[in-house]
Amino acid sequence: MVSGDPAAPLLQMQGIVKHFPGAKALDGVDLDVLPGEVHCLLGQNGAGKSTLIKVLAGAHQPTAGTILMDGQPVELPHPVAALEHGVATMYQELDVVDGLTVAENIYLGHELDKVGFTQRREVANRTRELMARLGHPEISPHREVGTLSAAGKQTVSMARALSRDARVIVMDEPSAVLDSGEVDNLFRVVDELTAQGIAIIYISHRLEEIRRIGDRITVIKDGRTVGRNLEVASTPTHDLIKMMTGKDVEYAFPTRPGVPADAPVRLEVEDLALSGVFADVSLTVRAGEIVGLAGLVGSGRSEILETVYGARRATGGHVTLDGRRLRHGSVAAAVGAGIGLAPEERKSQGLVLDEPVYRNITLSTFARTARGGWLDERAEKKAAKEQAVALDLRPPDVDRAIRTLSGGNQQKAMLARWLVHGCEVLLLDEPTRGVDVGARSEIYALVRRLADAGTAVLVVSSEIPEVLGLADRVLVISEGRVVHSGPAESIDEHQVLDMVMEGSVA
What we know:
The strands form six sheets. A six-stranded mixed β-sheet has the order 6-9-10-3-11-12, with helices on both faces. The protein has a six-stranded mixed β-sheet with strand order 18-21-22-15-23-24, sandwiched between helices. It has a four-stranded antiparallel β-sheet with strand order 2-1-4-5, covered by helices on one side. The model has no long low-confidence stretch (mean pLDDT 87). By secondary structure, it is an alpha/beta fold. The chain is globular and about 70 Å long.
C-alpha cells in the first residue's frame, strides 16, 4: 500500500453531478486516486457512493463533471469502455452467472478465441492461475458457479477483474459475505495488487477494516464531497462518523437490562438437525431475550434460522413455540404461530423490490387488511405509515418502490413487517449487513426495543463484536455444532475465534 506517495493521481473524478428524474444523486463529487493505494470511499447509505461508482464503471452517464486517467479526460459511455480504460468493478450484489462455469464467468465478454474457436485449455489454465493467486486453488475452472458459496462467488468476481488487467479495481463491501479467515486472505490479495501499482477503491461500512487496509479516505454526504484525501492513520473515527452523518453518533450498543429469571420460554429448539449441515442444536430464547449465534461463514448459523423458520425441513429434533410443537418444513405454520424472519439476502429473499414500501411492510399480514377477498390498500398504507413514522424510515413515503431506499432503510422496512405482524419470535440474519454506521445504531436500538416489549430475538451475525454487544446470551457454532453457550459478558472476541477455529467444546 502507498504511504505518503507524491505521485500524480492515476484517476480523477472532478465535479461529478448526476441527476435522476426528481432527484439529484450527485452534486459535485471529487475523487483523486493514486497508483498503488487503497482509497476508501465512505458515506451513509444513500449518500451517493453507488451512483458514483456506477458513473466510473460506465453504467451511468454523469450530468456534469470530468473523469481523467493519467491526467487525460476520458469518456465512459458504457461498461466496456470503462474496462478498456482499466477500471473494473466488483459490486456488492455479486454479478456472476450461476449457470456458467467458473472459467466462463471470468472470461465472459472477453473470451480467448482463435479463428472463432474458444481456447478452452488456455482459459482453464489461466483460471487455475487466478484461483491460486487469490488463495483458492481448490476451485475448479469447470465448477458451476451456482454451487459456490457467497465467498467463492466473490473470488470469481475478483478473478474476473484481474483477468482484464485492471489498473483500478472498485471493491464495494467486499468483506460482507466473508468470515475472518477469508477477510485476511482478501487483504493479502489487496496488498499484492497495490504492490504492483494497481489502485483499489474500497467501500466498506466497517471502520475497523478501513484502519487495517486503507491509505486515504474520501467521505461523501448527500451527494457531495465532505472529506477529501484524508490520511487513514491521522483521522479520528469520531471525525469520520461526524462527516458521514452530520452529527455526533454514539456508536455503541444499547444497555442490556437483563432478562428476568421467570420470563417465559418463547422458543425452544431441541436436538435440531439438518443432514450434512448441522446436528444436535438445542437452545431456548425467553420473552425479552436476545440470543446470538456466532460462527464462521459455512458453520450452519443461517441454516439453523431457516430450519427454525420452516424454510428448510429438519431431519431431526423439534421446534417449540410457547409450548406448541411446530411442523417441520412449513413457513406458513411458523408465521402463523408467531415467528418472523429477516433474511441475510434481504433483496433476493425478503423484499419484492419493485413493489411499494407499504406492500413490503404488510406482506405477512394480507389477511388482516383484506375486505371481501380483496386487499384494502388504504388499510395497508395506514399500517405501513404508522411503522414508517415509528422507525424513522427515510424517506417516509410508503408509496415509493422499496428498491429506491438505502440498505439501512430497507432493513427497517423488513423489521416493520414483523412489527405489523406482531410476531413473538424474531429471527435476524445479518441485520446490519451493508448498513452504515448511523443506521446500525438505530437498528441496534430498535432490536433492543423489540426485546424490551417481550419479543424473543435470535440473531446471527458474521461480526463477533456485534453478537457480543447486542445479545444477552451467545451460542458459538462450529462445523454445525454448538460448542459454547453462555452469557455474552462471559466471553470475548478472541475466545469466540479460538472456538470457531478449533471447533472444541468450551
